[in-house]
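Chapter review. Work through the record for Histidine--tRNA ligase before attempting the end-of-chapter questions.
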Amino acid sequence: MKVRLEKVKGTRDLLPEEMAKRRWVFERIREVFERYNFHEVLTPTFEYTELFKLRSGEEVVEQLYAFDDKGGRNLSLRPDMTSSVARLYVNGFQNAPKPVKWYYMANMFRYEEPQSGRYREFWQAGVELLGSDKVEADAEVIALFVESYLATGLEDFTVNIGDRVLLDEFAKMLGVKDDIGLMRLIDKKDKMSRGDFAVALREFGLDDDGVEKVMALVEIKGLPEEVLPRAEELFTGEKAREEIKRLYELVDLLDAYGVLKWIRIDLGIARGFDYYTSVVFEAIAPNDLGIGSIGGGGRYDNLISVFGGKPTPATGFAIGIERLIPILEWKGLIPEPKLRPDVYVVPIGKDAELRRAAAEITSALRAAGVKTDCELTGRKLRKALDYAGKLGVPYVVLVGKKDLAEGKVTVRDMESGEQRFVKKENVVGELIELLGF
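Structure tokens for Histidine--tRNA ligase:
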């Protein structure tokens, strides 16, 4: 009985055209990361499960791909990179010059229901800046966040900034003891109708007045110059006032970075990870694909100490590649990949001399930087030319016995059908000129 194996639910096979588009996106983002002097790291695909349970958040912990290995160790595939990077920092970089500026491009795993832009295996590109508690670090990271999207050609998006300190202060104003629980609930608000959100708040334990205040808070969003004065009216405590002052400073620096056009303030943003401690943010790009946030991040000043390190302030973000690429494709911003060689070399016949000459020409063209393929299946001339036509190859080099005896080969222009004899030793230069390299 034959067994037909399918790919696992929530995963994908990425074909050459899709991989070429992904590589284009990654290269655009990588260039910006490195221009900001961030340096690439990569951590193991799996870690001890306890690492993610410490501060990842209830929803993420429930979605872990956790398992016991053959040595009885309880491990999990990484659901995010921040925890792993924090562990890496604690393990060997606490005394490194500050700030430490790292970036990553890697796959993550969460057991959740697949939907538009959401898979069980997905890729993120992100940065972590460790060792600065200054607002300048927040501005640096958020400006990089904006510029990373701009580098892909995306311009119709906003980066919405919230603040966990203000949400914590708001929870205190309501008399809520489980502030983390309230944060988790607020983070899920966009996945519920307004009515369902109100019901969930009541089930959480808020009275009608508390529900009304939360519903009003999550609607306080818009341009910084509109929202921050309203926040000053709402929050009167000293800690909240200091945080609002910091937000004013952040906005001013983002203006200096030239990215204020994309910035909004949204006091209802909580983000799903428990480790955030201050500024949080997420990017939203309007679309008809059912895709929400395309990335986010924030400040996490307590995570390093939770993992056993010296208290170290930190901030960072992750861009959701599986969410970004469909939007870029929908907007027509990713160039169509060129999945063909520039030159195709065909030996006309099976003689060893012809095959050797074809291999020499192929190798010389590749060494000169020309994308070159050669006939590998023994096709006869007509079928080889048909194959080249289907690939869309601009030029074919025909290596025939008679021509080779005279030290020549034939270069065929596949669009016009025009053919010319070229000395074998000159064929590389001739093709480079024809291709405009």
